[in-house]
Automatic annotation (TrEMBL):
SUPFAM superfamilies: Nucleotide-diphospho-sugar transferases. It comes from Bradyrhizobium iriomotense. The lineage of its organism: Bacteria, Pseudomonadati, Pseudomonadota, Alphaproteobacteria, Hyphomicrobiales. Pfam families: CTP_transf_3. This is Posttranslational modification protein. The gene is ptmB. Gene3D superfamilies: Spore Coat Polysaccharide Biosynthesis Protein SpsA, Chain A.
Length: 233
């Protein structure tokens, strides 16, 4: 059964200017995700979507199979990402003529993942029978223990309450930070109703050191440091 990988990246970036094409240890940031997708040997098609012709050209050079020009209305600062993912998926299916049961979306700004993380998330989807799988790392703060939210009157309290008071963080339900690295969906339910969360959504756990999303210059410096350490190992 055919598997499709979508990778979506806008040309503009407010947090880190030009981050998707910025050099990261000898290759553009976007090239890391393409290489990881290729390394898994899972995908018949790797489709790269962008509103930027320069990024599309760079993606093809880095090994993407299909370049999908994203409509302008899906590339604004306020545009949600799911419509762009769906557009890229539909274009990949139309151009290849292949029916895919499962597809994976990789976020360009999460280059610390391993190919094994991708295959692990796909395996979890297959084994669980769920409609989709997201990835995340163990949360540093728990909404049941030490994560508070501010009420409209200015007071604060725990974000979530339990049936009985939790006095040790270890006793709280496990919570995760979404790392926006890997999303795995079954194609049919996604096309019918694109969503990140369904009633049966599962989470594939990744360690903190592979869960940094580049959203600032500090993030970029940290990702570069961690990648250099990995390459030296």
């Amino acid at each position: 059964m055919s598997l499709i990988c979508t990778i979506c990246a806008r040309g503009g970036s407010k947090g880190v200017v030009g981050k998707n094409s910025r050099d990261l240890i000898g290759r553009p940031v976007l090239a890391w995700s393409i290489a990881q997708a290729r390394e898994t040997a899972l995908f018949d098609t790797i489709a790269f979507s962008s509103d930027s012709d320069a990024l599309l050209e760079a993606a093809l050079k880095a090994g993407a199979d299909i370049a999908v020009k994203r409509p302008d209305e899906m590339a604004t600062d306020t545009a949600p990402k799911l419509p762009a993912i769906r557009h890229c998926l539909e274009q990949a299916i139309a151009r290849t003529g292949k029916t895919a049961e499962i597809f994976v979306d990789l976020d360009v700004t999460s280059p610390l993942r391993l190919a094994s993380d991708i295959t692990g998330a796909v395996d979890l989807l297959r084994q669980s029978g769920a409609r989709n799988v997201i990835t995340g790392a163990p949360a540093r703060r728990s909404p049941y223990f030490n994560l508070v939210e501010q009420r409209t009157d200015g007071s604060v309290g725990l974000s979530k309450s339990a049936d009985s008071p939790i006095v040790r963080r270890q006793d709280a339900p496990r919570c995760f930070d979404m790392n926006a690295s890997i999303y795995v969906w079954r194609v049919e339910p996604f096309l019918q109703h694109p969503a990140v969360f369904y009633p049966d959504t599962r989470l594939f756990e990744m360690p903190e050191e592979r869960s940094v999303d580049i959203d600032s210059d500090l993030d970029f410096a940290l990702v570069e440091l961690l990648l250099r350490q990995r390459l030296k190992a």
